[in-house]
Amino acid sequence: MRKIIFPVFLVLSQLVHSQIKVGKWRDHFSYNNCIAITKGDNKIYGATSTGIFWYSTQDGSLGKINRIQGLNDVSINTIEYSSQQKILAVGYEDGNIDFIFQNRILNMPQIKEKLMQGSKKINGFTFYNDLVFISTDFGIVVIDILKEEIKDTYYIGDLGEPLRVNRTSILNSSIYAATEKGLLHADVNDPLLIQYQRWTHESFFSNSTNECTDVTVFGSSVIAIEGNAIDQEDIIWGYNGSTWMELGRPYYTVLHVRAEQTKLLITSKEGISSYTSIIATPIVHSSYNFTWHFDPYMAIPIESEKIAIADNSSGIVYGEFGALNSYLPNGPINNRAFSIGVSSEKVIVASGAYDAAMGNRWFPFSYHKFEKEQWQTFEESIDLDAVRVAFNPSNPNEFYISSWGNGVFQYTNDEPVKHFDYQNSTLQTVYPNQPYCRVSGITFDSKGNLWAANVMVPKPISVRKPDGSWYSFAYAGAINSDQLSDLYCSPSGQLWLILPGGVGLFVLDPGKNIESATDDHYRKIKLYDSNGNVLPNDIYSLAFDREGYAWIGTSEGVLISYNPENAIDASTFAVQRVKIPDVVQGLAAYLLQTETITAIAVDGGNRKWFGTSKSGVFLQSSDGSKELLHFNTQNSPLPSNSIVDIKIHPTSGEVFIATDKGLMSYRGEATEPSEKFGKVYAFPNPVKPNYNGVITITGLVENTTVKITDISGNLVYETQSLGGQATWDGKNLNGHKVSTGVYLIFCSDSKGEETAVSKLLFIK
After folding, report:
1. From start to end of 104-227, where are the E strands?
2. What's the predicted TM-score (pTM) here?
3. Which of the four, 22, 152, 597, 696, has the lowest number of CB atoms within 10 Å?
4. pLDDT tens for residues 198-235?
């Protein structure tokens, strides 16, 4: 198997990943796919769908701005910087707008919130004095940036109908609008521009109703792009002040045109053309010097002979042709995240997928690795769709990835070791001798056996023993479903397999001898409560908690089994809803009963993290009855409320949350407890005067009692750990911030048999 590591072309910068504080967020977005670019004040700004990043041409530093730093949305479509106003404008696909000033971000959601049919996408910004002309999918919106209010909306289609405007540009007193039905212009100072009759439709295009895809000012000229038919080249037009002339038809599809006084850049997939005047012969560039992959989306002139390119694969590309470099923050190469695996050493994200009909998405087999605060992406160009990750519990540097078509891959220290499919294991393929060896789930049991769910084959369950031998189970008839999802090993050694589409569960007890079917016990399960009432059987997720209980995520909330070891015994096995108090009506309700639960994770404090299909993430108490946190796009930096997977790093407590728009993480309070006290310490230490977060004490055993005293032995604070970690807000028992001094941290286990002591310097 060929391994490709995608490097990140970075300069030394302020963007060094480091562990975040408890209660804080960080993004793990890809910054490779740059879809817009602008310049201003010694910085080049690039945009991806999930955020903005910048490169300083002055000192070589990098920075980023996303929802953590204050952006109000995702799905960015365009950005533009005004050097005069010192404002970076951000336009989103849903019509939302952010204006980034030097010390604040102004959100103007009026277009997003406007009641109207059709798209509200923001396509471009043109700054003119104190006004901003905003190109949208329905017309032009004018904002008075000083008053921070919408001044006018221009519907410039026939008879005042909505008309998509791709971009506007202003030369002298004329405003030009590139629209889906050609090029329009008007007097920018006309007080009646709200009337569609004040706009003139230019007729010089080869077909006057062809789309004008872009327009820009080049010195004293105007450049417009006529979008032609699919099988014909686009046409570049130039206006010299009196006449429009055709400048050429170099590309089938011109993506963008940008210019300054002395340089015009026209970008297409085939190349970038550079003009010094509208009558000069262009210089065409069709490759980079630093990589084989040439994928420009937009290019802008910088100073001298330098340019900056928004590249779909390499972020910001900057420099002179022949000496270009790529600049972007560290991250995965894309935002695809189908499932997450974690060990004490690293995080692995499978970036393939399969669709609702169990068909391939045809993504190249790839995974993202987060280790030592850095991301790398590994891709195999031949195989397809990496979908599940399983770490060997006895070796944190050995992991397995299943694929939707090519079986299972084994890695040790990030090196591919073995590839298992129908040719060298008991895994089977849907079609003989064809790459349809689809493995929907993999997991390890406590004995080191690797289990695999093999879809649409006669023997749907396979196991690889620690000695490397394989064995399969011919239970396709008992399962009676071609659709299999993920599988899990219970604390009692049973294998639980989710059967999607409302079918339920299949539970297998392989007995003491895996290779003998005589001691196997299994059952296909439809879920009922203890009274025989049918419960939701459309299952999406499952987890076993620290007490061995099974938590089941369905299309109608959460179910729990307090005796999962009895799953195969229909007479004693029971599942029930989790009742929670309804504080509004005083009636009993059921845990997340209106939500589809797509992910469940149990932290070191036995608390439950639930991911949902449309409402973000919920953190519930250990018994599920109390909501502790609820994160969504309205109150957190999450890029989406559609959660795909959740996994928790065992030693840091960092909660990795995969959404359909990218990966985020939040550092929780709970970590996996140690069996004995390890290196007990507090951080930050010392606590400086300007610090307002919580102080974390880590290295603890489960249910540690933590007492904090001053140097004289006076009790200041007492708490109990969540798993292997406890937190303190720096206040005493009366709720006041403690004074400057050294504080002692006394830790003891639940029996009082094991103890540990640490010190903390607090500076008020």
Report:
1. 105-108, 122-128, 131-136, 140-144, 149-154, 165-171, 174-179, 182-187, 200-201, 212-218, 221-226
2. 0.94
3. 152
4. 999 999 999 888 999 999 999 999 999 999 877 789 99
